[in-house]
Automatic annotation (TrEMBL):
InterPro entries: AAA+_ATPase, ABC_ATPase_HisP-typ, ABC_transporter-like_ATP-bd, ABC_transporter-like_CS, MetN_ABC_transporter-like, P-loop_NTPase. Residues 5-238 form the ABC transporter domain. One of its GO terms (molecular function) is ATP binding. Belongs to the ABC transporter superfamily. Pfam families: ABC_tran. SUPFAM superfamilies: P-loop containing nucleoside triphosphate hydrolases. It comes from the Bacteria. Its main location: membrane. This is Amino acid ABC transporter ATP-binding protein, PAAT family (TC 3.A.1.3.-). Keywords: Amino-acid transport, ATP-binding, Cell membrane, Membrane, Nucleotide-binding, Transport. GO terms for cellular component: plasma membrane. It is found in: Cell membrane.
């Protein structure tokens, strides 16, 4: 199986705070990996290192064939191969949905206005917002705005999608509609890494669960580790069950 992400013995400090303390894991093409763990365990930092939004102190990370430690790293190509969606949507308020999604296609991918609009319409329909094509962000719910943010990433045709707690700011109903889009992406074969607090979603969709604890991969495996955790730390984290 093709390896899309290889993280090897990664260490990272913020000042005296050791945030990643020897993290290693691999993600194969088409796999969905959920990173779970307590607040402050280093989940988001690990994810951000994969897109080179954070640099690392030691270790190696290879993503979609890009060696992130290489001096020859093509950051622009890395960023087009890897899509990342955050908790905050960061849409342009003065642009409508179609324009928000097509902007990067024109600026980064150099597509013509009509080519970009065509791709935008396809991915906006994919996230279930065909009827909101000309709406402005303020006219959309949080869940709809988050789906636009996902569409914006999809438009770049990434090989890997990273999701950093994308439903944390949403109420349960809106969370459901965003998770549904993520689930359909997973079923479509997209390689995905998600940092999430949605345990039942992780159990349902992820091929691999990574439990981070104090900057390390403390326990990893398929969804079975959520039903039968081996370590007291993961048992305690899951608490009363899914
Ligand atoms: N840019 C930064 N500068 C300094 N410290 C940071 C920075 N980013 C993260 N940290 C610290 O690194 C530690 C891990 O943060 P990180 O966001 O990776 O944790 P997390 O497991 O994703 O937590 P949460 O679930 O609350 O988002 C925390 O102690 C945090 O304060």
């Amino acid at each position: 199986m093709t390896t899309v992400v290889k993280v090897e013995d990664v260490h990272k400090c913020f000042g005296a705070n050791k945030v990643l303390n020897g993290v290693s894991f691999e993600v194969s093409k088409g796999q969905v990996v959920a990173i779970i763990g307590r607040s402050g365990s280093g989940k988001s930092t690990a994810l951000r290192c994969i897109d080179r939004l954070e640099s690392i102190d030691s270790g190696r990370i290879t993503v979609c064939g890009h060696a992130l430690h290489s001096r020859k790293l093509n950051l622009k190509k890395l960023r087009t191969d890897v899509g990342i969606v955050f908790q905050s949507y960061n849409l342009f308020p003065h642009l409508n949905v179609e324009q928000n999604v097509s902007l990067a296609l024109r600026l980064v991918r150099g597509k013509s206005r009509s080519q970009a609009a065509q791709t935008a319409r396809r991915v906006i329909s994919q996230v279930g917002l065909a009827d909101k094509m000309h709406a402005y962000p303020e006219q959309l719910s949080g869940g709809q705005q988050q789906r636009v943010a996902i569409a914006r990433s999809l438009a770049m045709e990434p090989q890997l999608m990273l999701f950093d707690e994308v439903t944390s700011a949403l109420d349960p109903q809106l969370t459901g509609e965003v998770l549904q889009v993520m689930e359909s992406l997973a079923k479509g074969g997209m390689t995905m890494i998600l940092v999430t607090h949605e345990m039942s979603f992780a159990a349902k969709v992820a091929d691999q669960i990574i439990y981070m604890h104090e900057g390390k991969v403390h326990e990893a495996g398929d969804a079975g580790i959520l039903r039968k955790p081996r370590t007291p730390e993961l048992q305690k984290f899951i608490g009363g069950g899914l």
